Amino acid sequence: MPRHWIYSYFFYKLLLEYLLPQYSNNCNFYTHFSTGTPMTPFGAEKDSFYMQQALALAATAASNNEVPIGAIVVSPEGRIIGAGYNKVEQRATQAAHAELEALVQAGAARGTWRLDNHWIYVTLEPCAMCMGLIKLSRMAGVIFGAESPLFGNHLDKDTPIPLYKRNALVIVPGVGAQEAAQLLKAFFQEKRNKGG
Fold first, then answer.
1. So what's the pLDDT on residue 154?
2. This prediction's pTM
3. Using CA atoms, how far apart are residues 83 and 13, in angstroms rounded to an integer?
4. What is the 3-state secondary structure (H, E, C) of the chain?
5. Are the CB atoms for 38 and 31 separated by under 8 Å?
6. Which of 77, 55, 83 is nearest to 146 (CA)?
7. 181 vs 159: CA distance, rounded Å
8. pLDDT tens digit string along 43-63?
């Protein structure tokens, strides 16, 4: 292997792991160095498994006449320690988003609000409120299914305030995106058909 390739590899590693997080908006899309495929420490098969759990929760939300969004929190060891689905209508508060439900449960399971090195899987891209709470919880990353064209965090044009002088939050989009989008489409189509 030519020497300049080795230098290039270490330069990009330095850039991705140490320099960019300091200048980013506390969010990074983390991809495999050679393939460009989004990565988590658990691998694609486990990511799919975890997202299926979140999708099952989203289906439960839909059956309760809530927008079908589900979320789970996974520990660094790969255990599901928090789960939640949307309960905004039931509780009449925006504080009942799926992500918040899952984070509260995970915090109770751990006995702390600090969820360092934990990951959250959510069927729909988190809104700015949920993303802020995820960052404050010091999580390692967010894996989401469908993008949110109305309220997704990527739509926020405000410059975020860096919360910590630490690694940037890893964001892996598109895991289970088709299934998540289909759940949402079916839910809203049924609402339109019923006239409400």
1. 46
2. 0.77
3. 34
4. CCHHHHHHHHHHHHHHHHHHHHHCCCEEECECCCCCCECCCCCHHHHHHHHHHHHHHHHHHHHCCCCCCEEEEECCCCCEEEEEECCHHHHCCHHHCHHHHHHHHHHHHHCCCCCCCCEEEEEECCCHHHHHHHHHCCCCEEEEEECCCCCCHHHCCCCCCCCCCCCCEEEECCCCHHHHHHHHHHHHHHHHHHCC
5. yes
6. 55
7. 28
8. 889 999 999 999 999 999 999
Amino acid (one-letter) located at 32: H
Q: How many CB atoms lie within 10 A of CB 175?
A: 23
59's CB contacts (< 8 A; 6+ apart) are 68, 70, 183
Report the C-alpha gap between 156 and 88 in whole angstroms: 21
Q: Which two tokens stand for residue 98?
A: 């799926």
Structure tokens at 156: 């926020």
Catalytic residues: 99
Phi and psi (nearest 5°) for 174? Answer: 85, 5
Task: Locate 53 and state its tokens.
Answer: 């759990």
List CB contacts of 60: < 8 A, sequence separation 6 or more: 70, 85
Q: Are 175 and 146 in contact (CB under 8 A)?
A: no
Structure tokens at 144: 């989401």
72 neighbors 60 (Cβ within 8 angstroms): no
Distance CA 182, CA 191 (A): 14
Give yes or no for a contact between 29 and 16, defined as CB atoms under 8 angstroms apart.
Answer: no
Q: Band of the pLDDT at 191, cuts 50, 70, 90?
A: confident
